[in-house]
C-alpha cells in the first residue's frame, strides 16, 4: 500500500465511530493484519445476496447502495452510503446466517476496508475486539434510529404523504432539502415506481408547493406541504 494512500485511509479510521479511542498500533493492526483494502469499479458488487457473511466492510471513498431484489426482479433500495468511515455488513458478524439477504453495489469507483468478522466476535480478553464491540453499539444505535425514520416515512398513508414525510426528514434547520438521491433512487427508497413519483412531484409543483430543478427540490410553500403530514 502506498504510504500516502495508507495515511489517507488511516485518517478515515481515526475519525470513524468504529475506531473511536483506538491506539495507533491498534489502527495499524486493523488496517494491515485484520483487514485488507480493495477497490471496486462502478456497478461492481461488493457482495451478493448468496455470499457467505464473514467480513465487516468500511467505506473509504466513493458511494455504494445497499439493496435487495424481489422474486420478480424489482430492486428495493435500502440505503445509500457515501460518507468515509460508513460501515455495512456488520450486523451479520453476530448472526448465524448462511448468506446475505441483500447486496451492496458500487455507484462510483470505491475503496473498501474489508475486516474479518472474527476480530469483532473474539471472546478472549482482547483489547482491540472489546473496543470494537463497544463502538459498534453506537453504530447499531444510529442505524436503528435511521431505520425507525424510514419506517415512519413508509408508514405514511397516501403517496403524497409519504413523499412529504421524506422531504421534511431531509430538510435542515433553514428549510433547505439536502438529498443526494436521483429520482429513481428516491422512488426505490419510498418503494414506489419512478413514474408515480414523477407524476406526484409534478402535481405538487403545479400546485405551487415545490419547485423541481433536476436533482434539487425546493419548497415554495412550507405550510401547504405540511398539511399532508
Automatic annotation (TrEMBL):
Transmembrane segments: none annotated. One of its GO terms (molecular function) is DNA-binding transcription factor activity. Residues 18-120 form the Cyclic nucleotide-binding domain. Keywords: DNA-binding, Transcription, Transcription regulation. Gene3D superfamilies: Jelly Rolls. GO terms for cellular component: cytosol. Residues 157-223 form the HTH crp-type domain. This is Crp/Fnr family transcriptional regulator.
Amino acid at each position: 500500500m502506498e504510504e500516502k494512500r495508507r495515511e489517507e485511509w488511516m485518517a478515515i479510521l481515526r475519525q470513524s465511530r468504529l475506531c473511536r479511542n483506538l491506539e495507533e498500533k491498534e489502527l495499524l493492526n486493523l488496517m494491515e493484519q485484520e483487514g485488507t483494502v480493495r477497490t471496486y469499479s462502478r456497478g461492481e458488487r461488493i457482495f451478493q445476496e448468496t455470499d457467505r457473511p464473514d467480513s465487516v466492510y468500511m467505506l473509504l471513498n466513493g458511494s455504494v447502495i445497499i439493496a435487495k431484489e424481489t422474486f420478480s426482479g424489482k430492486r428495493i433500495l435500502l440505503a445509500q452510503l457515501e460518507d468515509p468511515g460508513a460501515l455495512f455488513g456488520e450486523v451479520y458478524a453476530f448472526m448465524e446466517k448462511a448468506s446475505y439477504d441483500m447486496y451492496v453495489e458500487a455507484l462510483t469507483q470505491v475503496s473498501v476496508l474489508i475486516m474479518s468478522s472474527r476480530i469483532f466476535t473474539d471472546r478472549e480478553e482482547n483489547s482491540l475486539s472489546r473496543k470494537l464491540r463497544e463502538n459498534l453499539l453506537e453504530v447499531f444505535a444510529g442505524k436503528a434510529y435511521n431505520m425507525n425514520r424510514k419506517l415512519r416515512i413508509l408508514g405514511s398513508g397516501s403517496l403524497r404523504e409519504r413523499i412529504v414525510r421524506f422531504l421534511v426528514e431531509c430538510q435542515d434547520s433553514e428549510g433547505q432539502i439536502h438529498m443526494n438521491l436521483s429520482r429513481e433512487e428516491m422512488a426505490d427508497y419510498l418503494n414506489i415506481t419512478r413514474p408515480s413519483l414523477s407524476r406526484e412531484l409534478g402535481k405538487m409543483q403545479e400546485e405551487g408547493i415545490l419547485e423541481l430543478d433536476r436533482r434539487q427540490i425546493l419548497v415554495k410553500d412550507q405550510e401547504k406541504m405540511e398539511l399532508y403530514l
